[in-house]
Structure formats: C-alpha cells, structure tokens
Design goal:
It is built from 15 helices and 17 strands. The chain has 445 residues and is an alpha/beta fold. The two termini are 41 Å apart.
Amino acid sequence: MTKKSILYTIEQLFKIANPNGRVIYDINIKKDFREVVICFRETDKRIKFNLVEKNAWYDLVNGNSREMHWINNARGTYKIPVLFWADEDLPFVTLNDYDVIFNGDIISSSFFMLSRWEEKLATQKDEHGRFRYIESIACKYNFITIPIVDEYALLLRKYLQILFPDVDLGKNIFHIKLSHDIDNIRRFETVKKAIRTLGGDLIKGRSFSLFNRSLKEWIQSFKSQEKDPYFLGICELASLSQQYNMDSAFYFKTADKSDYDTGYVIEEHVKRCISYLQEQGFEIGFHPGYYTFQNYDKFIEEKERLDKVLGFTNYGGRQHYLRFDVNTTWRFWEQAGLKYDSTVGYAEHEGFRCGTCHPFRPFDIDEDRELDVIEIPLIVMEGTLHSYRNLTIEEGINCVLELMNKCEEVEGVFTLLWHNTSIYRGWEDWFEEVYVNTILNGESI
C-alpha cells in the first residue's frame, strides 16, 4: 500500500466508526508501510495497525495464502473474515489502558475490497466483459453477503469506545435507496414485436388468459404510448414510493438502438413523465448504454443528450448491464462531472461487492488518488434473485431481508434495483411479495 492509500482507508473506516468526529487523531505511517500509529490529541492513547507485505495480496488472489481467519463481529452476532493477518502467532487485537494494537490487518483488507484491487488482475471475464463473481475472493471464501469493511469499522468503533468511554462517537443513519433503470419504455414498440409477444404468450406460454391480457395491453399501447405497460410501470413505481414515503431514483437512457439497447427516444410524453417525477421530488439520473463501456466518447455523447433534457449536468446513475470496469468506469463518471455511480454489484449474486453498503469515494490505484465521485454500492437487483439465481419467491424475500437487516446493523444504505419492466407478465407475484410487501410495506420485517 502507498501512503495515500493508507490515509484514504483510515479515513473511510473512521467515517463509519466515528461519525460525530469527536475523536481527533493524527496518523503516523512508518517508512516501510508495515505499521501505522493513530495518535489521539491531548491524550497518550494510541491505536496501532500492523500491515502485511504486498506478496500476501497476491497469495490471497492466487490461492496460496493460509486458511482464512474468522472472528466475531463487534456485536457478536456472526463471524466475519479478516483477509490479511500480520502475524499468525498474535491474536486479532491486543490492548491495555493506553494502546490498541490490530494484528488482524483491517487496513489492507478494507482497501483490497474498496479499491477492487483483485479486479485489476482479472483475466477471466464474462460475455459482457464483466469481472465474474465466481472469480472473486468473496465467492471463494463465501462472504459476499457480509459487509466486511463496515464490520471492520464497527470493530474499530468498539475499541475506540474502550479507549474513550465518555465520548459519544455517534451512529450513522440507515437508509433504503430504491433505484429503477429504465431500460425500455414500450413493451409493444412495433406491430411485429407485438405479434411476436402475443404468439409467445399463446404458443410458448400456452396461456389464453395471458394472451388476452397482452392483447388488451397492446390495444391500449397502440392508442397511446403512455398506456404501454412498461411506461405505466414507471408511474406505478413512483406511485408506490409516494404511498410509502420512499426514496426512489429513476435512471433514463439516451443510447442508440443496438442488440443490447432498445434505443428509445426521450420524446414529449417521456419528458412530461420526467418533469412529473421531478415535481414529486424523485431523483432523475443517467443509465449509460451498453456500448459506453470502456468508450468515453460514447459515454459523454449519451450524457450530453440527457443534459439537454434535464437542463443540468450533475446527477448520478448506473451502467447498463452492470458493466463495470475498475480501470475506466469510475474515471468516466468523475471526468464527466457526475455526482455518483451505483453500478458496483454483481449481476450473478446479491451482496457486498465492495465489502460495504456505505457510500464512498473510490480510490484510483494507478493514479494513487481518491476520485471526485461517489460510489453508492448496489446491494441487490431483482433480476439477480429471479433470473440469475432462479430463487423462489420465499427465498427472494429471505435474501432481501437478510441483506436489508445487515445494512441496518452496520448503519449503511440498502440499495435495491427494480426495473420498470419487472412488474407485469410473470413478475406480478414477485413484485407484490418481494417489492411491495417486503421492501415497501415491511410486512415480513
């Protein structure tokens, strides 16, 4: 690790551990970057972190490291892994009246996750050029559903509280952030597509009721684009968020038509929809098309189209298909002057790809600096549970509840992606049970 990356990581941990900022500290980094000492002003008390050598990072990724250490979290509710351990003969922490010494290397472990360092080394990608979940350390050691960075921060808070029992360190406020990628606004875009859809309902689906319902929806859509079920899905999501007083963000596309982009145009009826959403206090953001991945010219071209529609340039969003590249994506979002990205989650599996559910500023390893953009990690996408993982509704509810509860326990943000297209035509039960009852209404919590 570099001096800047160490300082960055300590700041991220202290933001969670010491949200009130009442413990003032200075950082002393030894020349070999193997020892970091936190000195607290107007006191003799200290926290020391022992760090591992860089070869331990490669050993972990290459499967050459020792067995993973698992310890109790700060609340004693479950065990968490510590990716790096400075000295096998020493316990996780030693302490006395004045010093806390971390032998479990939570600095390197946290930076490993936050920076997505392992993705810099990846050679195996999926068909969409994405880093594969099965290649990740979180998969190999089975901790994808544990926000380990946040848990490290709460362990740090635990020991800060021991050193400073009379100081109110504070707590962060748990928040649910709903987000909706608007991949398509018309289910029945053309007559040919409508006939193909109706034929699928009748022949493949073998359902006359589904056929009849789709036929009625097509007629409505033909009469008015605003009556198309996908467009109505936007209205339904907004209405529910209003009803339950939830925070929702709608990310619109401006991509040209391609094999992976529907190429819808933000026409007058879509502009009216966007204006209505803004008037109701909802956030509007950017959903860059499939081919903006690793292509900044395409990225900025699409963003400028949305700038003209919105009348301002600083907003957040998420990449289409969750196409994230650690070498380019964060830089694109910073360079374009965007507020935040919320792409970093796996399509194949729900959980904590960055090891955290707290928004944070990413760190550029190559340029050795913190980037001027915020990452709001994506915790779960409905398509992950339903389509990638083929879970039952009950299993989907349990996954959502487990992740939501863990985000609440670590005082973070539970970020969920639910598309406007995932309401009708086979999604009705999932939408009602998982989205409405579990997330919005909280009947199962």
